[in-house]
Specification:
alpha/beta, Aminopeptidase, 2 domains, six-stranded mixed sheet, two-stranded antiparallel ribbon, 9 helices, 8 strands, 48% helix, globular, disordered N terminus, binds zinc ion
Length: 257
Amino acid sequence: MSLSPSSLFRCRRPAPRVTVILIFALLLFGLLAGILPAAADSPLASVPQGTVICLDPGHPSEVGRGTRGRQTTEIRVAWREALLVRDRLERDGMTVVLTKSRINELVRNRQRAETANRAGAALLVRLHCDAMGGSGAATYYPGRTGTSGGVRGPSPTVMEQSRRMALLFHHAMVRRLAPALRDRGLHTDASTQVGSRQGALTGSIFSQVPVLLVEMCVLTNPHDEAFVTSPEGAARLAEAITAGIEAAVAVPPSAPN
Ligand SMILES: [Zn+2]
């Protein structure tokens, strides 16, 4: 079959147009696929550079040396995670202050809050491991005023900011841990042993900046212990906590800086 030049023209004409549209669509898709998840996943774009985060590796304190698993201790897990999270936050342009300078340094819980206050931290994140039944990560924030050493706190403003940030933190964190590490929920200090007695945890009572405490895992649970002691698990937990912190301190795009 022969085609006249005009019919050839008619037949072939749509082909380049379709090709161009296809190429354009593919390019657009590639561009969006590359950019969108990063933008949606990383609140970093809206975290002001130099934002101060206070990381508090739990224990030893006046409360004790914390819990232990079969192979490791809460002190070791909290210290290791604090350093891993510090590296990631600094990589992302944040300033990190630790509440202790050596793994076995004894720091009272009041002093831990005071370090965050002095630093003018945007958020105080207290790193702990639980010992009980169950498995997974849980987040705690002060839901009401407490009293410790004759001091009442935290202020209503700190409580409201802590609640908002703990919510953002917890959801961003557990999303990155699933299904390896379970979500044990978001709770108030009052549901802890010390918090039920005082109204809030000591570290919250003395905090003049937003504060949350994360029970990163249940260290007495063999599955959780294996996760946090493996290099991959430790790194994944640090990434999840970093993402939680960045989600908590991110400035909404519409808000003025
Ligand atoms: Zn602890």
